[in-house]
Amino acid sequence: MNKIIECQNLSYTYHNAEIETPVLNALNLDINPAESLAIIGQSGCGKSTLLNLLGGIDQPTTGKVIINNADLSQLNEEAITNLRAQHLGFVYQFHHLLKDFSALDNVAMPLLIRGDDTHSALEKSSKLLADIGLQNRLNHRPAELSGGQRQRVAIARALINNPSCLLADEPTGNLDTKSAQEVLGLMMELKQQKKSALILVTHDMNIAKKMDRFLTLENGKLV
User: Fold this and answer.
1) Using CA atoms, how far apart are residues 1 and 44, in angstroms rounded to an integer?
2) CA atoms of 75 and 110, how far apart (whole Å)
3) For the segment 115-150, what is each residue's pLDDT rounded down to a tens digit?
4) What global pTM score does this model have?
5) Largest Cα–Cα distance in the chain?
6) HEC string of 107-172?
């Protein structure tokens, strides 16, 4: 079985003037197709840094990240961007929606950026928003949506490309309990429909236990 993501001896060190702060230390990780994984750990242990490395946003100090058999260290920035757009979706604690665009336009944006026909992109986005109960909010801007609705739009945007893997960094951390449960349920449902893998960073053990497996990041390694 081909792995969606592989990390081989992944290390990362922050450099601030002459001070070096090791964050990740020879970390190894394999992600299988359609599996769900939670990564837990204390604040500041490097969970978000790890997600950024997995997504090709940051580059490791040493080691490799391989996405669908492509070694990121052998690719230029344009190739990494294209690979990321094709295979990965991102959801963050804060929705990062474009405030001047409607929910429909926000979800369609990844399709439009990759050059899809505008009509088909909007039609596909409209259907996905309807599937998650936001058919009456298509033309609403982020400021006109509740926190839970904004996060639903962000999840739809992350999954509109049918990515191989969804990377989620504390996606429910900014929501009340009821909204958090609804958003988590939606994410798991859409993940199942799209057959995407899911890597979710969380501090909530109740959420972690709903994944196929969970690992703790401590002392720069996953245990």
Assistant:
1) 34
2) 21
3) 889 999 999 999 989 988 888 989 999 999 988 888
4) 0.86
5) 54
6) HHHHHHHCCCCHHHHHHHHHHHHHHCCCCCCCCCCHHHCCHHHHHHHHHHHHHCCCCCEEEEECCC
Instruction: Tell the burial category of 33 from Cβ atoms under 10 Å away from its Cβ (0-12, 13-18, 19+).
Output: middle
Instruction: For tokens 């899911």, name the residue.
Output: 198
Tell which residue, 88, 28, 32, has the closest CA to residue 62: 28
Structural tokens at position 13? 């060190």
Q: What's the pLDDT at 144? A: 94
Q: Count Cβ neighbours within 10 Å for each residue of 174-201 and write b for 16 or more, e otherwise.
A: bbeeebbebbbebbeebbeebebbbbbb
Residues 24 and 86 sit within 8 Å (Cβ to Cβ):
no
Around Cβ 37, how many Cβ atoms within 10 Å?
22
The answer to whether 189 touches 133, Cβ cutoff 8 Å, is no
Amino acid in the structure at residue 152: R
Strand, helix or coil at 65? strand
| Domains, in order of start, for the chain | 35-48+76-222 (3.40.50.300)
* Helix and strand element counts for the chain (H, E): 7, 10
Q: Rounded to an integer, what distance in angstroms lies between the CA atom of residue 116 and that of residue 35?
A: 29
Res 202: pLDDT: 87
Phi, psi of 50 (to 5 degrees): -60, -45
Residue 176: per-residue pLDDT? 76
